Structures are given as structure tokens and as C-alpha cells.
Amino acid sequence: MICINNQNNEYLIAIKKILETNTITKVTYNIKSQYKILQKYGIKLSENTHDILLENYILKGIMQCNEFIKKINQDFLLKESKYFIHKQTNELSPYYDIYHIPHYILKIHYKNKKFLNKEIKLKSILYDIDRPIAKILYEMENNGVLLNCIKLKNQSQEIEKKLACLQLKAYTLANEHFNILSNEQTRHILFHKIGFKNIDKTPKGKNSINETVLKIFSQNHRLPNIILKYRKLYKLKSNYLDKLTKMVNINTGRIHTSYCQHSTSTGRLTSYYPNLQNIPKKTLEGEKIREAFIAPDKYLILTVDYSQIELRILAHFSADKLLIKSFYNKDDVHTATASNIFDIEINKITIQQRQIAKIINFSVIYGITPFGLSKKLNITMKEAKHYIDMYFKKHYGILNFIKKTLVSTSKKGYTSTLFGRKIYIPNINSDNTNIRKAAQRACVNAPMQGTTADIIKKAMIKVNEYLSLTNFQYGKMIIQVHDELIFEIKENKIDEITKNICFIMENITLLNVPLMVNIGIGKNWNQANKIA
């Protein structure tokens, strides 16, 4: 905990010397936020700084980490409930007892240090991946991304008109006015007035009207599809179009999102205030939002994303011969899978058969069941089971990997990424069948998603090192979306820098199959995605 008075220059010089030297060990809580605070005083925190928040996250997993954060908030929140106005969020934030925190932080660090010294892989995760990535995330937040606010305001007005039109259609079809955003009122219209039969339940036992259910209902009636469109457009407008322009920093003209590296069980990064990772990619409205994320004059937006990375990691973990062969031959992996499932020559596979194989390929990663696949493909459970059986008959390496993962996770309570990050699956041995099966599905996907997260972080560290060689004069990272990195690059350097970034990302680690990236270049984020 650091308190600095701008008026006290001698104190500022002394604390700056301590914090910037590598010969003195520092311990803190949430190091990324400390970078932001110290930047105001021209202080660059040295590498010899430890973060008990990251230590607890890596050692104990997301649930224990959340408990740890909750405990700190409870133990050190001043009981008088005094508050101050937070400058960034303009919200009330609590004061903390700063006198006892330092001793507590040191005590936790030395306790964690003992465990980390016994867990060499976790120690490497902390100091080779998560600790350096914290500084890069702070720099990305600081960089921000330029926004065309006029474009967003125009789009908001367009969607407002579309919403009004959809609302009128819904009222006409329902023959009454109702709140389309209200689940209770929508259930009444669909189940009691129109007469749809329930096909799924919510966790609380109510008739489900989630996206999957509404899509199925849409086959027999126009109203569910209109409700679906209305809700998607409303969410897009309220979550992005109406908020993004308000979040632009007046001084920079940019959006400065925040990243969190301790909010998922797999190590995946999340973005918030605003969330730039959830902008729809395959809709016209989502594309228009991405058009508003622009490059400054004499710069271009570069997008680089890993091609089918989770399937490649699955090929590595499972050592499945057919999957490895497809990637090494640079075959279209979904067409090759369709050929295996339908027992037809590759050149005779139809678009529909390829689409079925694609859904199965990605569904297997998430531990799909015949019931789940039947819903996705709108086929019978018998047909879905047949497809899954045929898939595993040919891809028996994947089936063996899934079985081994389930047995191992059941014994240990966690599964691991390629680099040793532990992903805890708390309900893997639950007595409740539904909860246990959900945990089993999660544990099948976790090693792929977690390894993807580790790989992209390692790539970000190496790419950042490369861009820093010219002091970020020609390019910088501005956004991360799971397996995609977005950059601002000088126009006259775009070819050279793109080539080097691609080389770094494709060679960041060695798998049984080659890593490959897709690139896109444009004046805005959507244009770059289109070219990718």
C-alpha cells in the first residue's frame, strides 16, 4: 500500500528509488492497479515485485482466489464505512485500513512462496506468464483504441428504428402489447396464449425461452424469431452503442478497456468497462460496431488470430492420428472429419456434411452429448448418437484422451494445461448427476481453453518485447480477444511488422501439429477482420 504526497519531493524521490531498484524485493496486491497509480508520479515498478493476488489465483484457482479477495475486503475495510469518489468510475469506493495491510501481504507472500518452490510448473506460470502479462495488460489499457463516435451514434439511431418496427410486429402477432424483455410476460404469450409446448427447463424449473428454444419455436411461428431479433438488437444497443461513446476518454479520444487475469478458471483474460470481447462477430450490427474502432492517421489496424487453435491443441493432447494428419497435410479439417464420419471420399463431401462435421469437431471439445448435438443440428437423438459414435470410432485417440482426462480429474480434482496451470473442477465428483455431468463436460474443454490462454499470453509477451525494440514507435498492441490480437501499426512498416509478429506467434511453442495464424489489415477493426 503506497501513499504519496506530491508536495513532499524528498519522500517521492526516496520511494521512487526503492520501487524502481531490482535489488529490493517488493510485495503488493493486484500489481496491475499499482502500475496505474505509480504512473502518475513517474515511477516505474521494478521486475522484482511480487503479487499475492496472482500467487493465490495460480496456486488455488478461481474459487479460492475469489474467497481470498472477499476476505481482504472484509478484514481491511474500515468499519466506519467511509467512502470517497473514485475518479475513473465516478462511483463511491471504500477506504481501507492501510496500517495492517502491509504486514498481512508479506505474511501471505512468504506462505505462498513455500508452495511455489515445491510446484515448479506453477512457479513458471506465475513468473514467466502471468506476472509479465500484468504489465502488458496495463500498457494495453493505457494505449486504448481510437473510436469513431459519430458512426456509433448513427448506428444507434438505425437500431432504434428497427426495434420499434420489431416491437410493432410482435404486438400484432401476439394480438396484445407486452414487454418483450420480460421473461415472465414472454412465457405467458408463448406458452399460454400461443400454446407452445415446453422443451426445456431453467435451473429454477421454469419453462425455458433461451436462444436455442426460441430458434426451435421459430420453425413453427414468426413471433419467437422476432423476440430473438429484438432482444439481440436491444442488448447490442444498450451494452455497446449507448455506452461506448460515453466511455471515450476526453483527453485521448480513445476507449480504455480494463483486463482481468484472475476471473476465469482456465486463465483466460476477460475485458470489462467496456467488454470488447463480446461484440458479435458474425452479425451485420456487430460488424458495424467494429467499423467504429479505427486506426489513427498514417496507421493501420492489424488483426492476428490463431487458426483452429483449440482443435490443434486437442490433436496434440490426444495424439489422434487422423486429426494430426489433417493439420500436417493442411487439409480442410472439417471436410476431412466429414469424410471420416460419412465414409465418403473428401472430394464428394457436400457443404451440409462439412457443416455437420464442423459442429461436431467443435462440440467434442465441449463434451457434447447426443441430446445437445441433436438440438444443435435439429436432428433426432438417434441420429446425433450415430454421428458421435462414428466420430469416436475413427478418432479413437480423442476418445481415449477424454476418458483419461475424466479419470484423472476425478482423482485429483483438477486438470492441467500444457504448461502446468491447474484448472480446478469442483463438482467433478458431485452426487447430483446433472451437476457432475456439467463438470465432466467442463473438464474436457478446460485443457484446450487453458492452453490456448497460456499460448496467447506467451505470444503477447514475445510480441511486446519485439515491438519495444523500437520503443513502440511503429506499432503497439491495443486489444486482446481470446485467440486474437489487434494492433495499431505504422503504414510504412506494416509488411515487415506483420511478418515478424506472425513468425513469433506461430513459433511460440512446439506442438505435435503446426500453429498457424490468420492476418487481416484495414483502416478499422471490421475491415481487418473481413480481410483475415
Could you please describe the fold and organization of this structure?
With 532 residues, the protein is α+β, with helices and mostly antiparallel strands. 57% of the residues lie in helices and 11% in strands. The protein contains 20 helices and 15 strands. It has helices spanning 9-20, 31-39, 52-76, 101-118, 120-143, 149-174, 183-194, 211-217, 223-244, 284-291, 309-318, 321-328, 333-342, 351-365, 370-377, 381-394, 396-412, 433-468, 494-506, 525-531, and strands at 26-28, 49-51, 83-85, 92-94, 145-147, 254-255, 258-260, 270-272, 293-294, 299-306, 414-416, 422-424, 475-481, 484-490, 517-522. The strands form 6 sheets. It has a 4-stranded antiparallel β-sheet with strand order 13-14-10-15. Strand 3 (83-85) and strand 4 form a beta hairpin. Helix 3 (52-76) packs antiparallel against helix 4 (101-118), helix 6 (149-174) runs antiparallel to helix 9 (223-244) and helix 13 (333-342) crosses helix 16 (381-394). It is globular and about 75 Å long. The two termini are 45 Å apart.
